[in-house]
Amino acid sequence: xDESSKTPARRREFKKRxxxxxxxxxxxxxxxxxxxxxxxxxxxxAMKMATDHATHAHKDKIEEMGKxxxxxxxxxxxxxxxxxEA
Length: 86
Hints:
Elements: H1 8-16, E1 22-25, E2 37-40, H2 43-57, H3 59-68, H4 71-81, E3 83-84
Antiparallel strand pairs: 1-2, 1-3
């Protein structure tokens, strides 16, 4: 690490950075015709937002997924699709 990165201004800048937001979109879950994207500070919040959206907007898709996998499998699949916002 070079000396310029240790300056007080640089340290303040680093402290001001927000943690990466977590995102989960319908497109990530294979629903290509929907532009919804959940964005939250935690994976749990992003998952809840996406689930709330999907239960209202994509009932048919949720029913299909429910036939193919159990709730634990569905949660694991959704969790694996959560991304850190760049």
